[in-house]
Specification:
27-stranded mixed sheet; 46% strand
């Protein structure tokens, strides 16, 4: 075997690979079938593949040795870009890949390899003229590429496109050292501007001078991009890194593009086009899975943060994995854009966008669009924060939006910043379960608005939707609109009820609360409330519905949040109260629930104005036994005397000002306009 290999090498070097080689094979009774020599193939005519011949040359010359831990060949040219055999120069584990190993067309340099693997002890460096703007690399063999060493380029401005339809794995020791952008893909072809595509597995691909535009997938594909246990995948500041394949798995790794852009896409049977704002696809595109697991991170933070764009079927984040675009200078922040079928976030994973600046700049937006479900659970978060800047927008659109198990959506403003908006729009359902949506401002600038639209909206198991200003800026509006139901039902395991509130705890005015649905139900101690606690004006509460039901009390008893189900507007000794306005064809208040305005200041209580067709008030609050107490009730009763609160179902406009100030404010007016009013079982008005 060794003698035959030496003869083959000699024939290749002298250029005499011809019938004598076939004759040599014939003498060994190997005619008309493929023969392997040291695992390198001859074709049916007895001619060795050029790339395998080069590999043999490397082994015989000592320039290449197999990795003891990774049983795969290294970097092998497939011969399609060169008319004569070439050998990769390898000195002390450094592999040099000059431009004459490929073909240059205009500003594009094309390389073609049978295999492309870099061991942990190796580096592979591409070089060539400085005029090259794009290095286009295809891998035509049938193996996944494994990069566990240094991937480098000496070209100052050359973007790299690496395509292997069989997949790319990036190991623990891999690093990137290039001065331009990097796009890694398992696509079948590269889309070119004003030219035929560059096809990976075409024996004679079209080599164009045109600019690469994006990636194309011919079918469902099987190529996976895997990155595992790597904290050093970092691209140069302001540049782009793209991972585009049939499936993307990132485990316990950190991908960094400071002030640049990260594109991640899982696709099949379509084309995707690169742009400064992310990726675009045609309508027939099918999305696959993208997994960010075990504290993986995609970050574009910097003095002006960059953009993150993710496109696919299912994006799954777990175990504190996150996406981050934070601007910590005086430049504008970038956007985080997700275009998916489903978003699943769990185990304290989060998405954050914000600005930290001493001068006015603008924060980026978080835009999430899902054709099916956006699902946050187990303390997951979506956060927008700004300091001394204009905050960005959180916008979530899906068929269903589900926020569970202490998960949070929050926009936070400090300094002289101005708050952004939060939009949740779902065609079927928005669900909060023991979770929160909040807009809070500690700033001199005004807070933003919260807008929720869906067919059904459920606020359950101790959830909160709250806008609060604790600065001089004014609070934003909470607008919740449902085609069918808005329900506030249930408590959490600590006995906390649900609430929708708009509060001012400083001199800034609270914003309004606006609810519109076919049916609205508030039970189990749930409340809609507006409060002013330190001189600011309380916001108005406006409700429009066909059927409004206020039912009962917290089934576990009184706590710091209160006891009764109800709609409440309240102010402390220095505040000014807002009004409650309700339009409902049918209004039912029972079992201790109420509508109430209350002033504790020298200002007058706000008015209560309700109108409709039928009003029913009935019942009193039940007595809650101590064995029903949960944590919040136990703590409350240990530190407070039970309040002599309202037990009777009803509509109230109170003044408790005499307890706090010499000059008491007046209770507000109650205006009732119904065709039918019914009072039962100690119901009050």
């Amino acid at each position: 075997m060794i003698l035959r290999t030496l003869i083959i090498i000699s024939l290749i070097i002298t250029g005499n690979v011809n019938s004598s080689l076939s004759a040599n094979i014939d003498m060994n009774n190997q005619k008309k079938r493929s023969v392997q020599t040291d695992e390198y193939d001859f074709n049916k005519n007895g001619i060795m593949d050029l790339g395998d011949a080069i590999m043999v040359l490397q082994i015989m010359s000592g320039r290449y040795s197999n990795d003891n831990t990774i049983d795969r060949p290294g970097i092998i040219l497939d011969g399609s870009m060169s008319s004569s055999p070439v050998t990769l120069t390898k000195l002390e584990e450094h592999i040099h890949i000059p431009s004459d190993f490929g073909q240059q067309k205009g500003n594009n340099l094309f390389h073609s390899f049978k295999t492309f693997n870099i061991k942990s002890s190796e580096s592979a460096t591409f070089s060539g003229p400085d005029t090259i703007q794009n290095i286009i690399i295809r891998i035509t063999g049938d193996e996944t590429s494994f990069i566990d060493g240094q991937f480098q380029s000496d070209l100052p401005n050359a973007t790299i496109y690496l395509l292997n339809p069989n997949g790319v794995k990036i190991g623990t020791n891999a690093s990137v050292n290039i001065n331009a952008s990097l796009h890694i893909s398992t696509a079948d072809y590269l889309v070119m501007e004003d030219a035929e595509p560059f096809i990976v597995n075409d024996a004679q691909p079209v080599l164009s001078i045109s600019q690469p535009l994006g990636f194309g997938f011919l079918d469902t594909g099987t190529g996976i991009i895997d990155i595992a246990h790597n904290d050093q995948i970092e691209i140069s500041t302001g540049k782009t890194i793209s991972l585009i394949g049939s499936e993307i798995n990132i485990k316990n790794s950190h991908i960094i593009a400071s002030e640049g852009q990260i594109n991640v896409a899982s696709l099949s049977s379509c084309e995707t086009i690169l742009s400064d704002s992310g990726l675009t696809v045609n309508e027939k595109c099918s999305g696959g899975h993208i997994n960010l697991l075990d504290s993986s991170r995609l970050t574009v933070d910097g003095s002006g943060s960059g953009n993150i764009f993710i496109l696919g079927g299912v994006l799954h984040l777990n175990e504190a994995s996150y996406l981050s675009s934070i601007s910590n200078g005086n430049k504008n922040g970038g956007d985080i854009n997700l275009l998916l079928d489903n978003l699943n976030m769990n185990d304290a994973s989060f998405i954050q966008n914000g600005t930290i600046s001493g001068e006015i700049s603008r924060g980026g937006n978080i835009n999430i669009t899902a054709t099916e479900t956006v699902y946050l659970w187990n303390k997951s978060r979506i956060i927008s924060s700004t300091e001394n800047s204009l905050a960005g927008i959180i916008r979530i659109q899906a068929k269903n939006i589900s926020i569970r198990q202490e998960s949070v959506i929050n926009s936070h403003t400090t300094g002289f910043g101005v708050g952004g908006e939060i939009y949740l729009v779902a065609s079927e359902e928005v669900l909060f379960s023991n979770s929160a949506l909040s807009m809070d401002s500690e700033a001199s600038g005004n807070s933003g608005n919260i807008i929720i639209k869906s067919n059904n909206i459920f606020v359950s198991n101790g959830s909160t939707i709250v806008s609060e200003t604790s600065g001089t800026g004014h609070g934003g509006c909470i607008s919740i609109q449902a085609g069918n139901h808005i329900n506030l039902v249930g408590t959490n395991d600590n006995g906390i009820a649900n609430t929708i509130s708009n509060n001012s705890t400083s001199t800034g005015n609270a914003g309004e609360i606006y609810l519109n649905a076919s049916q609205i139900s508030i039970e189990d101690g749930g409340t809609i409330n507006a409060a002013s606690m330190d001189g600011g004006s309380g916001g108005n509460i406006q409700i429009h519905t066909d059927n409004l039901e206020l039912i009962g009390v917290n089934p576990h008893g009184e706590n710091l949040d209160g006891f009764n189900s109800g709609i409440i507007s309240v102010t402390d000794p220095t505040g000014t109260l807002g009004a409650i306005q309700i339009s409902s064809k049918q209004l039912i208040i029972k079992e201790g629930a109420y509508i109430k305005t209350n002033t504790c200041s020298n200002g007058n209580a706000g008015k209560v104005q309700i109108q409709g067709e039928s009003l029913t008030i009935q019942g009193i609050a039940p007595v809650i036994a101590k064995d029903q107490f949960l944590e919040s009730q136990i703590v409350f009763n240990e530190n407070h005397s039970p309040t002599d609160g309202i037990k009777l179902s009803g509509i109230y406009a109170n003044s408790d000002s005499h307890q706090y100030t010499e000059h008491s404010g007046a209770g507000g007016n109650i205006i009732i306009d119904f065709s039918k009013i019914s009072l039962y079982e100690e119901g009050g008005e």
